[in-house]
Amino acid sequence: MLSVVIVRVCGRSSKPGRSDVARLCPDLPPLGLLDAPLKRGMTTREVDDYLAATRLVQSFAFRAKLQSELLPRIVNIWIQEVRRDLLAITFYDLVDKHGRRYSPYGWRVRMALAHKGLDATVELCWHSDKRKLAFSGQHLVPVLLDGSKPVNDSWNIACHLDDAYPDRPMLMDGAQGRSFARFLNSWMDSIIGRPLVRSLYLDILQSLHPQADAQEFRRRREERNGASLEALHANRANDFAQINCAMLPLNELLRQQPFVAGEAPAYVDYIVLGTLQMPRVLGIEPLEAQQDGVMRWREGMRKLFNGLADNTR
Ligand SMILES: N[C@@H](CCC(=O)N[C@@H](CS)C(=O)NCC(=O)O)C(=O)O
Q1: How far is CA 28 from CA 25, 53, 75, 79, 86, in A?
Q2: Rounded to the nearest 5°, which phi and psi values hold at 144?
Q3: Which of the two ends of the chain, N or C, has the fewest CB atoms closer than 10 A to its terminal CB?
Q4: Residues enclosing ligand 1, CB less than 6 A?
Q5: Hey, which of 93, 96, 105, 271 would you mutate to test ligand 1's pocket, going by the most ligand atoms within 8 Å of its Cβ?
Q6: Which residue owns the Cα nearest ligand 1 atom 6?
Q7: What does the pLDDT look like over 156-182, one tens digit per residue?
Q8: Which of 93, 130, 141 has most ligand 1 atoms within 8 Å of its beta carbon, as the pocket-test mutant?
Q9: Domain extent listing, the chain
Q10: What CATH number does the domain located at 90-310 have?
């Protein structure tokens, strides 16, 4: 992107050439340094050098503009392009062999980005796609690369989005809101998510992306649960009964108010919805008829952001 800006700025000069650039902007670093693109996983030092070079490009563009060698509007567009590149968000999410995105944590992030009104480029990963995520220093999705900053774990991502974009709608309201959301996040993962996920492992195994390591997927989960995936699958009715019992207080709340957060949806709603999106994307219904409040709320949640959660992809 930087080299494009330089070349185009030069190209619009009345007498384009490296010597003109040097005359107009003596502090411009050698072109080689400016050629380096912004890459995923750059070190802090490399990003600092990049930013310093960007500022020089901008100062050069500004001087060129003053000299009336360029249309000011075009210079501004180029500068905006550079900024956009620096501020771009990439979201790494899980995908199966049908192109479906079923990660409960991925769904929390998708809804959170929509709530904040932020666009992200999506990079799809399969299970054990460790090479693609190496820049984040761990192997689980979701991961957000915000500019040059990698953030992993859906909870950290939600906190990061509120901290980095406080001028956009907040996901969590102040310290109390964040504290309650943190409780709900761990309650949902341990009391609902754990029995739900283990009862779905066999379905997930059967729909793994062809490049995913199915043996490793099975080995790690059977080791963690002390049972075969087939035995966990056979225990599904018990797990669903346990989940439905644990969700009754939540159902009661949603009989009385439209959203978990109150009158309008917020991150606590996306935590619960994310977990329920996983069975939905896989075509399985864990909720029993008694969960009328949760079901009505779930229908409403799927309509948000132009039906974002109605999508399986
Ligand atoms: N606590 C993490 C959990 C992340 C997680 O477990 N991700 C799963 C997908 S749902 C994963 O990446 N699994 C890949 C693997 O185990 O190789 C979060 O909230 O983001």
Answers
A1: 6, 8, 17, 16, 20
A2: -115, 130
A3: C
A4: 94, 103, 105, 127-128, 139-142, 153-155
A5: 105
A6: 140
A7: 999 999 999 999 999 999 999 999 999
A8: 141
A9: 2-87, 90-310
A10: 3.40.30.10
